[in-house]
């Protein structure tokens, strides 16, 4: 394998602390724990303001990690969440971190299988994940297929790609907005959730709601 080859093993982690450090990297004075504590509530609030999430709702969290967002949404609303992740260790740790009968994790292939048997979700969201994917356009197709009619999808993502490679991260161009907009009946771009690490990050990300 070459130094620049896609290397998903980067997301293999051995415990929740290591997972957290990959999910929200320390930036400047802000530690992973600081970021976890200040960035999660505004994101959960934004989702709840735009999606009518109840105990009856089923959501997909694509690139769930250990369930940073899923855990809070379940606690606040009683919804059911299917956490999808490329990493088997993230999926396993997600079941521990969320520890709820309202949470299950599965692989990307597992989600495709569920869809082939008729499963659909009311809403889906994906935070800080499509930038790391080797196939973000295929992931978007999958997510739209996973939504019921009039279902909603939220994406929080960088305006560029950050692909895992053996030697670190490979940065590239990525513009997913036209792909998402072309598949949507309607869409809107609210301001990014409050408390993202700093203004310079905020300028390099997009925060969009897309409706099937
Ligand atoms: C930066 S973390 C974000 C985790 C979570 N969304 C959050 O905000 O706390 C990115 C996650 O996406 C997962 N991931 C990366 N590429 C993926 C892909 N192609 N399909 C599904 N999950 C992927 C990683 O394993 C990791 O758990």
Strand content: 25-35%
Count of discrete domains: 1
**What summary fits the major beta sheet?**
7 strands, mixed
Helix- and strand-based class?
alpha/beta
Specify Rg, calculated over alpha carbons.
16 Å
Based on Cα principal axes, name the global outline: globular
Distance between the termini: 39 Å
Helix content bin: 25-40%
For the record, the CATH architecture stands as 3-Layer(aba) Sandwich
According to CATH, what is the topology?
Rossmann fold
Strands of the widest sheet, in order across it, are 3-2-1-4-5-9-8
State mean pLDDT (0 to 100 scale): 94
The total count of helices amounts to 8
Under the CATH scheme, which class? Alpha Beta
Description:
The protein has 212 residues and is of the alpha/beta class. The protein has one domain: Rossmann fold. It contains eight helices and nine strands. The protein has helices at 16-23, 32-50, 68-77, 88-98, 108-116, 136-146, 177-182, 199-203, and strands at 58-62, 80-84, 103-106, 121-127, 147-158, 160-165, 168-173, 186-188, 205-211. The protein is globular. The model has no long low-confidence stretch (mean pLDDT 94). The structure holds S-adenosylmethionine.
Any descriptors?
single chain, 212 residues, alpha/beta, seven-stranded mixed sheet, 8 helices, binds S-adenosylmethionine
